[in-house]
Amino acid sequence: FSGQLAAQRGLPYAFASHFAPRMLMQAIELYRSTFVPSAVLSKPRVVVGVPLVAAPTDDEAQFLASSIFQRVSGIVRGERKALQPPLAGYLESRDHQERAAIADFLAMAVIGSPATVAEHLKKIVDVTEADELMLVCDIFDTQLRLRSLEIAAAAMPA
User: Fold this and answer.
1) Rounded to 5 degrees, what are φ and ψ at 5?
2) Could you report the per-residue pLDDT of 46-58, keeping only the tens digit for each?
3) Residue 147's Cα: distance from chain center in Å?
4) Which of 68, 85, 100, 122 has its CA 20 to 30 A from that of 75?
5) Among 65, 53, 47, 68, which Cα is nearest to 134's?
6) DSSP 8-state assignment for residue 37
7) Which residues of the chain have pLDDT under 50?
């Protein structure tokens, strides 16, 4: 609904793919196909929210992402908590059903080293034709969160 409203009013549209990744392409298509130019915008402008965990190595990024995995597990079980510290082996300790729920919830997540991040962010932009990415960086340690955003910024072409 928000995409249709933004399109009808000729406004930009931001989609929270970190909440509902399965609906991303459908929502963008609906927005673009029903967009009406306005005094604000002459053409559609799409912003895609992307969960991000970037680190020097893929292994470290996966470890840091365990905080997000814990958060998603809590959401799925109806047990919301503050962001928890990362736990080694967290994802592997979950049963198949819980791992599948985490994977589904985080289908648009970009988790990895600088090279992995660059590749995945480029793919998201190529597939969605997004005008802008809004990176959602849930990392327990604030300094590592900032480092993650710096890695992503360096990975994206100007």
Assistant:
1) -65, -45
2) 999 999 999 999 9
3) 17
4) 122
5) 47
6) -
7) none
Closest C-alpha among 128, 122, 127 to residue 32: 128
Nearby residues of 126 by Cβ (< 8 Å), 6 or more positions away: none
Q: Is the pTM of this model over 0.90?
A: yes
Helix (H, G, I), strand (E, B) or coil at 66: helix
- Minimal CA–CA distance to 124: which of 68, 50, 54, 52? 50
Report long-range pairs for 59-63 (Cβ below 8 Å, ≥24 apart). 61/111, 61/112, 61/113, 61/116, 62/91, 62/111, 62/112, 63/88
pLDDT computed for residue 111 by the predictor: 98
Q: What's the domain range around 120?
A: 2-155
CB 3 within 8 A of CB 15: yes
Residue 85 sits in a domain whose CATH number is: 3.20.20.30
